[in-house]
Amino acid sequence: MKFAERSLTASFTPLCSNVLKDKSRFPFALFQRKLNKSRSPSAYTQKKQPFSNAVMAVGPYLPPRFSVAPMMDCTDNHYRTLARLISKHAWLYTEMITAETIVYQKDNLDRFLAYSPEQHPIVLQIGGSNLESLAKATELANEYHYDEINFNCGCPSSKVAGHGCFGVRLMLDPMFVGEAMSVVAANTDVPVTVKCRIGVDDHDSYNELCDFIYKVSSLSPTRHFIIHSRKALLNGISPAENRSIPPLKYEYFYGLLRDFPDLRFTINGGITCIGEVNAAIRAGAHGVMIGRAAYNNPWHTLGHVDSAIYGKPSSGLTRRQILGKYQVYGDSVLGKYGQKPTVRDVVKPLLHLFYSEPGNGLWKRKADTAFQHCTTIKSFFEETLVAIPDFVLDSPVGETPVGRDELFADIHSLLPPPYEVREQELLHA
Q1: What range does the record give for the signal peptide (predicted)?
Q2: 333 and 305 in one domain?
Q3: Which of 11, 50, 205, 365 is deepest in the core (most CB within 10 A)?
Q4: How many domains does the chain have?
Q5: % the chain with pLDDT above 90
Q6: Which listed residue (74, 153, 155, 210) is catalytic?
């Protein structure tokens, strides 16, 4: 198989940063006195002023109008390399990395935090529930120059939300989340954001969601929230079931836009194609995050982001050209950390590149066989890509998928009643 030659480096269009002034909506001093009753003053917030201005668009990159969700065992270095070859402007997230992992692996951090410069704009998602670990992890991560740091308050996995007592369970303790976000912000110079759900178990009213947003944004510099528009059920169902069983409540998300006009909100959950992304933005969303659709069908999802979302030229690469560049990357990282990564590890995100295309089934069967003996990405491609017709390898991305036009058509008529701040109740919560 012959590949065309082109540079791997992605180009970006410089933009001026958009800076939102901090607007704490109720007296921080009152909250601080409340915190100090149970905790001594946190040393981790002393390095910088915790209420510094929050930058919403970083450096030379376009704002996060479209982002790929952090997904465990999916959005690793290999997937992000592929994603950036397809889209120059989509915001990419790491898998969630616990603060404790970063601290304990401080002498081996490249394995967990290193990435190629082409992956910008990129967000580090961290998880944890220990302020000291969060502070140290943030300091250690600074060396890697991520564009934002996101705090996980949305993962429903029992391993995360159970014994670890972080992830979505933290939504039940917004006072702690506010302090944690101040700690993270005090130890970095990049914006900090929160990814959460709309509720947990029976704590699923719109007012409870607003209370969480209100407290966290008032206690910290957090001005951007990514909202998965389903609640989480911690009654033993799996993370996969938590992505489908709880109903989507987009009206909660758009209620937040109405009730917190000084904050930024990105919608997540149930949106599967670029047409639906644009529908959400037309309805008022500041940004849209897509997860499984961007992983399971990267070509037809990410291939339209630059032109249809950002109004910029697409990369113009065919899948043959993308695979040529990916081959160079893949063979350069094989065995970099002892026996890892393997050919199977590096090829994993490519297995969805020909989703629904002629030859896709045969390509996957050949891949299963090739994993048993191929030792390079080049040899793997030579053995397997004969299954994919030339017209598939060389065709452009095609027309933008339309999606469900009605998804947000009547959303503003379905909004919950406006949030009324119960300040005295909040201060004594």
Answers
A1: none
A2: no
A3: 50
A4: 2
A5: 74
A6: 155
